[in-house]
Specification:
The complex is a heterodimer of chains A (317) and B (338). Chain A is an alpha/beta fold and 317 residues long. Chain A has nine helices and 13 strands. The chains are: A alpha/beta (317), B alpha/beta (338). At the A-B interface, helix 6, helix 7 and helix 9 of A face helix 6, helix 7, helix 8 and helix 9 of B.
Chain lengths: 317, 338
């Protein structure tokens, strides 16, 4: 396989709180290959958004390395960082709060063009803005509309166009469809997949929705309380989930199929424990139906159980 | 044996009226819920699901919300004709509601135990003493899986899933005949959602409560409901048993669109079926079938005439494609079996 576009090595981000260190991202090692989509899935508070922001250098890591096209970007600053920003973009979750309400559609989409000087000259900027709007499926007549005049789906299309403006290689999609209705969600997912096919984009797709992540991702990393507990290709993960947490997640999805007699699903008990100063050992252990004595006390490494299928669980050591 | 009818909604309209505009939220829907039955109301944002629920409890906003016509019969009495006192007994007593967001539906400055006791005190028809009420609070907390030792804690000390359990405890404290659950798990994580759904399923068996489950998630419908009503632009466009909705071969084009739009967990799909366009503006609904601007099978008749209801057993479909409605032959297209 080719070289990964993005790679993290022992990436950590701890936040200081009055009660101790919050381990938001704790020793995460992932690789994303060009033209592919890495899905990051986990429940709220598992550190998936923090991971996305770390990759974009929107927040500084506590320790670890981030390689982009083979270069460690953690130390980047000044002009180098600014140039890097053109290659990486983000699409946010909430299309209602991520757009400036006082800017028109064309102003929002052309702003990155002007700031980064990707395109210069009034006419060229207007042309490029029109092209971007067409690419994401926004009607030309909306060029002077304000975000509040548009519905969630169209607003999210603006978010996509804005991210595409600087011709990035890599886009972090942070729950881009969670705030949308299913019929609109399908439109945006199809758009993102078409863009990837046509422009060779690389995505990191953050979501809590397992059916969405399966649909759009080539590879998936499952996170639990700041750690990556399982990494595999999308089809492999759904065919053969190894980690008890992944299995529990998959069992928790309500399926749109009639199931008379309603088989009781194995519902996992308990809730997320605190990410503040966690003790060494598996963080899922308190909820795990297969907990053993050796789950706690030592950190569980991520091992390659079968080719390209990584898991961190004592069962497989 | 057919269970007794509990709630019957007849040709209900809900409208929000401001100086500027009239929003037609619910446009002539009818359905019944029998004792111990679970009816799912499924649809997207703005379909009128929540307005229906609020109308049943007469909780529509005072100034703007109107019910221009319709009847809501509950155990033989018309809710729309009840006076204040009767409504007070009904709300939280015979019909209880769980709201979507557990973070905002609890009072942050009152311990959770007291919030449950409040419901019991207000509906204290059996004349329970203070101690008996406390015992009942403990009992109901344990029932929803919260240790009763935590009853003196405040909402912020609980996680989202636990708060929703408290809300469920309040709703069930007075043994309601009907529980209205408005997106009860939308704000929760998937493993917590599974816990809460399992809890609702378990409790409705135990307490023999009927449930009106409002959700946009077809998976939740399949797991909890007996009957399903699919709503679009304030109308029920398809109604039937879960089997009818999930397995029958005839469906409303919107229902098919909804199913096509969800990514499947156990199948490989390259591209999602998308429903083109948007929900119609409820202040300016299209004539004829409200779905026609987005429908793949739109015929001339759809633009003019409101579709009749086609019935097959319990399965109701509101679409010109079905039955002997004149639309099919007139346009020379055969009635599609969808």
């Amino acid at each position: 396989m080719s070289e990964p576009l993005i790679k993290t090595v022992h990436l950590k981000k701890y936040f200081e709180t009055s009660r101790g260190l919050l381990h938001a991202v704790d020793d995460v090692n992932i690789s994303i290959f060009p033209g592919r989509t890495l899905g990051v899935v986990g429940e709220s508070g598992c550190g998936k958004s923090t991971l996305g922001r770390l990759l974009l250098r929107l927040i500084e890591p506590t320790s670890g390395q981030i390689f982009f096209e083979g270069e460690d970007i953690v130390q980047y600053g000044g002009i180098k960082l600014r140039d890097l920003r053109k290659k990486m973009q983000i699409i946010f979750q909430d299309p209602y709060s991520s757009l400036d309400p006082r800017m028109t559609v064309s102003e929002i989409i052309s702003e990155p063009l002007i700031v980064t000087k990707t395109v210069t000259g009034k006419k060229a900027i207007a042309e490029e803005t029109a092209r971007l709007m067409e690419v994401v499926g926004l009607a030309e007549r909306l060029v002077n509309a304000y975000p509040h005049e548009l519905d969630g789906g169209r607003r999210q299309r603006i978010g996509v166009a804005r991210a595409l403006a600087v011709k990035p290689k890599f886009i972090v999609c942070d729950e881009p469809v969670s705030a949308l209705d299913v019929s609109i969600q399908a439109q945006i997912l199809n758009l993102l997949m078409d863009l990837q096919r046509d422009m060779g984009l690389t995505y990191m797709f953050i979501t809590h929705d397992l059916s969405v992540v399966k649909h759009i991702s080539h590879d998936i990393v499952v996170m639990y309380l700041g750690q990556n507990v399982e990494i595999a290709s999308s089809s492999e993960l759904f065919r053969k989930p190894l980690h008890p947490y992944t299995q529990a997640l998959l069992a928790s999805i309500p399926l749109p199929k009639v199931n008379r007699g309603k088989i009781k699903r194995d519902v996992i008990r308990g809730e997320l424990s605190s990410p503040i100063d966690p003790k060494p050992g598996c963080r899922f252990a308190p909820r795990c139906p297969e907990k053993r004595d050796d789950c706690v006390g030592q950190d569980i490494p991520l091992i390659e159980y079968s080719p390209n299928h990584f898991v961190s669980c004592v069962k497989y050591m | 044996m057919v269970a007794k009818e509990l709630l019957r909604v007849e040709d209900l309209y809900v409208m929000y009226k401001t100086d500027m505009e009239e929003v037609h939220a619910v446009n002539g829907i009818s359905f019944t819920i029998r004792e111990q039955e679970t009816l799912g109301l499924v649809g997207e944002t703005g379909a009128g699901k929540t307005s229906t629920a609020l109308a049943i409890l007469r909780l529509l906003p005072d100034r703007t919300g109107r019910i221009p016509s319709g009847n809501i019969w509950f155990q033989g009495k018309n809710i729309l004709e009840m006076d204040h006192e009767e409504l007070r007994r009904l709300r939280g007593g015979d019909i209880a509601m769980i709201f979507q967001d557990p973070m905002t539906s609890l009072n942050p400055v009152i311990p959770v135990g007291q919030q449950i006791a409040e419901a019991l005190l207000l509906h204290n028809e059996e004349g329970l003493t203070r101690e008996q009420i406390e015992d009942r609070v403990d009992e109901i907390l344990e029932l929803v899986g919260i240790p009763s030792s935590r009853k003196n804690e405040y909402p912020h000390q609980f996680s989202g899933g636990m708060k929703q359990r408290v809300v469920i405890a309040i709703a069930l404290s007075c043994n309601p005949r009907l529980l209205i659950a408005d997106e009860p798990t939308t704000a929760l994580d998937v493993t917590i959602q599974a816990q809460v759904l399992a809890l609702i399923n378990e409790l409705k068996e135990k307490l023999k409560t009927a449930v009106l489950m409002i959700t946009h998630d077809l998976g939740i419908i399949a797991e909890t409901c007996d009957k399903v009503a699919v709503m679009y632009a304030g109308e029920i466009i398809e109604y039937g048993t879960v089997e009818d909705i999930f397995e029958a071969d005839k469906h409303h084009p919107y229902t098919i669109g909804l199913f096509g739009a969800i990514p499947k967990i156990h199948e490989e799909t390259d591209r999602l079926e998308q429903i083109e366009g948007l929900m119609p503006d409820p202040t300016d609904l299209p004539p004829g079938c409200k779905f026609h601007p987005r429908c793949k099978h739109c015929m001339p008749v759809c633009r003019e005439k409101e579709p009749p209801v086609f019935q097959e057993g319990d399965h109701l479909l509101k679409c010109h494609l079905f039955g002997n409605s004149s639309g099919c032959e007139r346009n020379g297209t055969s009635c599609l079996s969808l």
